[in-house]
């Protein structure tokens, strides 16, 4: 059975929607969620958990008890940092961005991997960003977190390949999601951004969801720890 963090985000919610997938996912974990968000999710099983190691372990154990096993972990939790120079970045905000984007993935992998080792098979898909590959002006905490997530995922892949566990990272470019609404509402900034994108648009969550489903499937059984960079600001996600 698969689990997903931020399952009520646009990408996460699509993974549990029956509209186009022959094998819809059946359980999820939500980080930094509230009850109303859990109820709005397409997935049939949700847990509201704070972002700390103990809660992640408890939630994973609850999924195991309820469903018997975990085959796929999709970590999609994210927090965008304010666009400011390093010297102006608030330290508490920096730490929160690192916790949300990087530490949560580590906590959940640490909780899930032992269960996957027992059955000799498992897939971890983490959502990073093209910003984690090349960086962006004014996004020090976000760049650091996503770059760290790419290398954390690669390490998981190397450490546990012989346990039958794969780990890959999806690195989207600019996406049309609620997290990017501030940019899209600024007409001048939106025009400049889209002009730099060959497709002249942001990526759609469906495009990422389809990629995640492929990477989590047996069709991608020889893809692990792989890094494929895309040109900066291309709307199609890269696989890292």
UniProtKB/TrEMBL annotation:
Protein name: Uncharacterized protein
UniProt xrefs under PANTHER family: DEHYDROGENASES, SHORT CHAIN, ESTRADIOL 17-BETA-DEHYDROGENASE 8-RELATED
Molecular-function annotations in GO: oxidoreductase activity
Ribonucleoprotein found in the keyword field: no
Cited InterPro entries: NAD(P)-bd_dom_sf, Sc_DH/Rdtase_CS, SDR_fam
Family of the protein in this entry: Belongs to the short-chain dehydrogenases/reductases (SDR) family.
Organism this protein belongs to: Exophiala mesophila (Black yeast-like fungus)
Domain of life: Eukaryota
Keyword annotations: NADP, Oxidoreductase
């Amino acid at each position: 059975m698969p689990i997903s963090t931020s399952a009520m985000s646009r990408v996460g919610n699509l993974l549990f929607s029956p509209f186009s997938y022959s094998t819809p996912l059946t359980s999820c974990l939500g980080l930094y969620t509230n009850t109303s968000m859990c109820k709005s999710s397409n997935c049939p099983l949700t847990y509201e958990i704070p972002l700390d190691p103990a809660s992640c372990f408890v939630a994973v154990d609850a999924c195991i008890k309820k469903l018997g096993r975990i085959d796929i972990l999709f970590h999609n939790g994210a927090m965008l940092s304010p666009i400011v120079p390093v010297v102006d970045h608030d330290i508490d905000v920096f730490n929160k961005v690192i916790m949300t984007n990087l530490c949560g993935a580590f906590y959940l992998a640490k909780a899930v991997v032992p269960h996957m080792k027992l059955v000799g098979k498992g897939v971890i898909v983490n959502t990073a960003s093209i910003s984690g590959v090349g960086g962006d002006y004014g996004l020090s905490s976000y760049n650091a977190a996503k770059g760290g997530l790419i290398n954390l995922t690669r390490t998981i892949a190397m450490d546990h390949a012989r346990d039958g566990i794969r780990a890959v990272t999806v690195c989207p470019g600019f996406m049309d999601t609620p997290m990017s609404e501030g940019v899209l509402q600024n007409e001048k900034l939106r025009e400049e951004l889209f002009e730099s994108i060959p497709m002249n648009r942001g990526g759609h969550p469906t495009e990422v969801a389809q990629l995640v489903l492929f990477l989590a499937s047996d069709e991608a059984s020889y893809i692990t720890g792989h890094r494929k960079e895309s040109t900066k600001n291309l709307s199609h996600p890269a696989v890292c």
